[in-house]
From TrEMBL:
Gene3D superfamilies: 3.30.70.120. The lineage of its organism: Bacteria, Pseudomonadati, Pseudomonadota, Alphaproteobacteria, Hyphomicrobiales. InterPro entries: N-reg_PII-like_a/b (IPR011322), N-reg_PII/ATP_PRibTrfase_C (IPR015867), UPF0166 (IPR003793). It comes from Mesorhizobium alhagi CCNWXJ12-2. It comes from the Bacteria. This is Uncharacterized protein.
């Protein structure tokens, strides 16, 4: 699979307790991205954060979690990301979704140096 050098970064910020059809929302998003043949997805767990409600979510020494913030990042070409957005919209009831233009310097394994273009 190839990823265009000029691509988009889709960033999705949700809570660990968010669900989609009984399954964790982050899991449903990643599996759907894979099913739609996007280049890849990564879920990052935050130690502390707040969102629209201003309710603080954080790890505590005596608790395993308190609906911790999650960030899902997906990078692919503009066409594939834009095709994924309507599906994502049906899965989410809250959260934050952002898009950024990015330059892909490496995807997968290869030899040589990584060089940015001016």
């Amino acid at each position: 699979m190839q990823v265009p050098r000029q691509a988009l970064l889709l960033r999705i910020l949700i809570g660990e307790d968010d669900r989609n059809d009984g399954r964790p929302l982050y899991e449903a998003i990643v599996l759907k991205a894979r099913e739609m043949h996007l280049a890849g997805a990564t879920v990052l767990r935050g130690g502390m954060g707040f969102g629209h409600s201003s309710r603080l979510h954080m790890t505590k020494i005596l608790r395993l979690s308190e609906d911790l913030p999650l960030v899902i990042e997906i990078v692919d070409g503009e066409d594939k990301i834009n095709a994924f957005l309507p599906t994502l919209d049906t899965m989410m009831t809250s959260g934050l979704v952002t898009l950024e233009k990015v330059q892909v310097l490496q995807y997968g394994s290869r030899g040589g140096q990584i060089e940015a273009t001016p």
